[in-house]
Design goal:
mainly alpha
């Protein structure tokens, strides 16, 4: 009933949710940067940013869909945890959720990595 009247609850909760999504994106970028640097990319920062937007590696449509679904669900879950918790618990819950979600996404991408992508 409060949402219909325009009361969206704790405004600080929305800032935490946005901060959690930013943390999630930063962790994702760091993992992509690390992978590009290990592969010997000439411009790992640019390539990692490009990887978050659109993958260069050939990936089957189903694998790409599952990978993006894991990434988006992890981001949404991290934001929901930030919005739903408060106090000191919020920081630990958001950080833990973000790390677990990004690890699941990275693990799935690593397991479905093709031989052509490994050679790059």
């Amino acid at each position: 009933m409060y949402l219909a009247r325009g009361d969206y609850g704790d405004p600080e909760g929305w800032l935490w949710a946005l901060g959690a999504l930013a943390l999630y994106a930063l962790i994702s970028y760091a993992l992509a940067y690390r992978a590009r640097a290990r592969r010997g990319s000439g411009h790992p920062a640019h390539d990692a940013l490009h990887d978050l937007k659109d993958r260069e590696e050939p990936q089957r449509p189903r694998q790409l869909l599952v990978s993006r679904a894991i990434m988006l669900c992890g981001g949404l879950l991290t934001g929901m945890v930030a919005f739903g918790t408060s106090g000191a618990v919020r920081v630990m819950a958001v950080a833990g959720t973000a790390v677990v979600a990004v690890a699941a996404w990275a693990y799935y991408d690593h397991r479905t990595d093709t031989a052509a992508a490994r050679r790059r």
